[in-house]
Amino acid sequence: MSDNVLKLGIPKGSLQNATFELFEKAGFDITGADRSCFPRIDDDEIQIILLRAQEMSRYIEDGVLDAGFTGLDWIMENQSDVYQVCELLYSKTTANPARWVLAVPAESSVRVPEDLSGGIIATELVNATKSYFQKKGVDVKVEFSWGATEAKARLVNAIVELTETGSSLAANNLRIIETILTSTTRFIANHSAWANSFKRQKIESIAILLNAAIDARTRVGMKMNVHKDNLEKILKLLPAEKSPTVSSLADSDYIAVEIVVEEKVERRLIPQLKRAGASGIFTYPLNKVIH
User: Can you give the pLDDT at residue 240?
Assistant: First the structure.
């Protein structure tokens, strides 16, 4: 493998589609992921390898991969010594952080973690769960769960399970006692790869593009025509990051104003702008927003 090729790990499984969609939004074209663990990307300086998020940080620490994406939870679970390039606020379902929660059956008498002293906890996140109970001074036995952890909640005393919305736990009639760890996706790199000027620049470029694509998800561009007499009151309504773009029009009495706003602001702002005299208002989706 050439030193001028970045070996990049993409999480296989629940985060895979969300990651590919983010890369597409950032301007990359990835193909063949449905047939191969080595999908093709339209950048000759990147080789993609699909691996489980649970093991990603280990392979990056060992130098098998140069960089990749995984959750903070698995970096902590594996106690991996890697360079954290940036946090990426996306996940498989929502933009909210994922939570590892301590849960028990709804009918359980357990109300606080201390009530589990002497009990058995089933989870996939063994090391982090052990650390959590050790810090609380609660003596429990933590067993690794190979899956279907929610089904084991009534076989052991409690489970520690990953959730974004809590809907699956509720569907299984489970009650959350406490969040033991909050996790977001991290872009991480091997220390030697980060010290390599080519690979570091490549990693930094990917980080810029992906964060720009994430920021664009919740924002829209907005453009409108404004009579010069109404310009001051229109500008007072605009929550632009910096100054809005103001351009002259063929009709010297009117000015074009353009800004980028959050989608949740757009629906409130448009009626206000219309009442203040703006016309020809239109909005458009964005691919990237770079601060």
Answer: 61
End-to-end CA distance of the chain: 35
pLDDT at res. 178: 94
Helices of type H across the chain: 16-25, 53-61, 72-78, 126-136, 167-171, 191-195, 197-217, 231-237, 263-275
CATH of domain 6-93+185-216: 3.40.190.10
CATH T-level assignment (fold) for domain 219-285: Alpha-Beta Plaits (3.30.70)
Tokens of 218: 């919740």
User: What span, in angstroms and rounded, lies between the C-alpha atoms of 47 and 87?
Assistant: 22
Measured in degrees and rounded to the nearest 5, phi and psi for residue 199 equal -65, -40
Q: Which residues of 13-28 are buried (b: 16+ CB within 10 A; e: fewer)?
A: eebbebbbebbebbeb
Collapsed DSSP state (helix, strand, coil) of residue 216: helix
Fold match between 6-93+185-216 and 219-285?
Answer: no
Within the chain, which residues score under 50 in pLDDT?
none
Task: Indicate the CATH number of 98-183 among 3.40.190.10, 3.40.50.2300, 3.90.320.10, 3.90.1150.10.
Answer: 3.40.190.10
Q: Which candidate, 201, 203, 200, 163, places its Cα nearest to that of 186?
A: 203
Q: How far is CA 25 from the centre of its chain?
A: 14
* 3 state DSSP class of 149: helix
